[in-house]
Amino acid sequence: MKSDTDERGLFIPVILGTSRMGRASENVARFVVRHLAAMPGIETHLIDVLELAPRIDGAGEEIKIPAFSELCMRADAFVLVAPEYNHGYPGLLKHVLDTNLKEYIHKAVGICGVSAGNFGGTRVIENLLPVLRELGLVTIFWDGNFSAAQKLFDAAGQLLDPAYVRRIDKFAKELVWMAKVLRYGRERVSLEV
Predict the structure, then answer these.
(1) According to the model, what pLDDT value does residue 2 have?
(2) Residue-averaged pLDDT of the chain
(3) What distance in Å separates the CA atoms of residue 143 and residue 189, rounded to the nearest whole number?
(4) Distance between CA 14 and CA 119 in Å, rounded?
(5) pLDDT digits over 163-182, tens only?
(6) How confident is the model at residue 3 (pLDDT cuts 50, 70, 90)?
(7) Which among 24, 82, 87, 146 could disulfide-bond with 17, CB atoms 3.0 to 4.6 Å apart, if both were Cys?
(8) Selection from 38, 37, 3, 32 nearest residue 17 by Cα
(9) What is the distance between the alpha carbons of residues 14 and 37, in angstroms, rounded to a whole number?
(10) What is the CATH number of the domain that holds 97?
(11) Residue (of 77, 68, 74) closest to 106 by Cα position
């Protein structure tokens, strides 16, 4: 038996977590957005931290970006596309994520790690997991690992290795499942015991 929760589409924004010039992560983020947009019942939107221009002279609620907070509140799940910077994550991504809290509670998140080397951003994913948990997000079991990202796309931003389509499909299906389950829980299951 399907509920109203099952019938409504999901909103899953993709957050591009780097502001560096010449970022290979941008092609990955656009690929993920296209893939999600092609799935039935999914609405998506690319959120680029470069375009958010967050204040850096404060923290938390005092530097909230209203449009970003509204998108986060509306979201059923998130995808983070984050490059690995010296075994860690971009500081600007962490700063932007920290501007919200209640907007994330009990929502699914998947991480696409991006690297110039062979490990596909594994270390950025490992480092982001405790941060996302602290923010109240629920991480999915699959990751998107994009190794040698500078060689994965042509000059027009088209993917050159079709194996990534299957991988991101598995990732996206897990994210959609988790988003549906968590939305059902947020709407129908009380935290009161």
Answers:
(1) 55
(2) 93
(3) 28
(4) 21
(5) 999 999 999 999 999 999 99
(6) low
(7) 82
(8) 32
(9) 11
(10) 3.40.50.360
(11) 77
CB 14 within 8 A of CB 46: yes
Residue 92 lies inside a defined structural domain of this protein: yes
With tokens 């932007």, the residue in question is 96
The residues with which 159 forms a beta bridge, in sequence order, are: 153
Is the separation of the CB atoms in 110 and 175 below 8 Å?
A: yes
Place of tokens 């988003």: 179
User: Is 165 domain-assigned?
Assistant: yes
Q: Which of 1, 25, 4, 3 is nearest to 15 (CA)?
A: 25
Q: Which residues constitute the domain of residue 174?
A: 12-184
Domain contains 192: no
In this predicted structure, what is the pLDDT of residue 62?
A: 86
| pLDDT digit string, tens, across residues 142-161 | 999 999 999 999 999 999 99
Using pLDDT thresholds of 50, 70 and 90, give the confidence band for residue 1.
very low
User: Would the pLDDT of 66 be above 80?
Assistant: yes
What confidence tens digit (pLDDT) does each residue in 114-128 have? 998 888 889 999 999
CA distance 117 to 112: 15
Q: Which residues contact 138 (CB under 8 A, 6 or more apart)?
A: 106, 107, 108, 109, 178, 182
For the chain, the domain total comes to 1
Task: Please check whether residue 180 lies inside any domain of the structure.
Answer: yes
CB 143 within 8 A of CB 171: yes
